[in-house]
Write a structure and sequence with these properties.
single chain; alpha+beta; Chemotaxis protein chec; seven-stranded antiparallel sheet; globular
């Protein structure tokens, strides 16, 4: 994974932008907020360096995580700061709550489902672009430090590699509404994705 040619990184960035655009549209439709998603990084990282993308291993994070099955295996994470999570809950369920500890089943389910819809929109766009079946798992919500949240994503990859291939999409909006989407293909699946990029559907 560390020796991908520049053109392949750029091809992955381009196809990821389609996923980011679909996720952006889903977020805007759900919240009515002017939100922009930008693919900021496509890179390989040592496992200990991945939490830095979310502010460092001890940064508090509210994460909605889905595993991806089908033609390739991957993990996708919608990661929000506690402030962003609270602000989104306030948009979804006005007037909102004052702390994450006050979240009841309604808010928890709503936030999880929002993450599910955004992640699935991202994956559906990738699936169409790559001509691959990408099947998401049931979403899981975690409120923890970034290091702990990321460890869950990397536990399976750690059996075969000590580096992660990461596509980072930054969520940009008004102050207090930002976050990240991290897509991490399994190392064994990355060659299939690259093959699909070299031979797009209908070629």
């Amino acid at each position: 994974m560390d020796t991908l040619p520049h053109r392949e990184f750029e091809a992955l960035r381009a196809v990821s932008e389609h996923g980011a655009h679909a996720a952006e549209q889903a977020l805007r439709q759900m919240t009515g907020v002017d939100i922009r998603l930008d693919v900021s990084r496509v890179q390989t990282l040592a496992f200990p360096d991945v939490p830095a993308l979310l502010g460092g291993p001890e940064a508090p994070v509210v994460g909605i995580h889905l595993r991806v099955y089908g033609d390739c295996r991957a993990n996708i994470l919608l990661a929000l700061s506690p402030e962003a999570a609270l602000n989104l809950v306030s948009v979804l369920f006005p007037p909102g709550i004052e702390s994450l500890e006050q979240m009841q089943e309604l808010e928890l389910s709503g936030l999880t489902e929002m993450g599910n819809i955004v992640a699935c929109a991202y994956l559906n766009a990738l699936s169409q672009r790559l001509g691959m079946s990408l099947i998401p798992s049931v979403p899981m919500l975690a409120n923890d430090m970034a290091g702990a949240v990321v460890d869950v994503l990397l536990i399976e990859q750690g059996r075969t590699s000590d580096t992660a291939f990461v596509v980072q999409t930054e969520i940009r909006s008004r102050p207090g509404m930002g976050g990240n989407i991290l897509l991490m293909p399994d190392p064994a699946s990355l060659p299939r994705i690259l093959d699909a990029l070299r031979e797009p559907p209908g070629a």
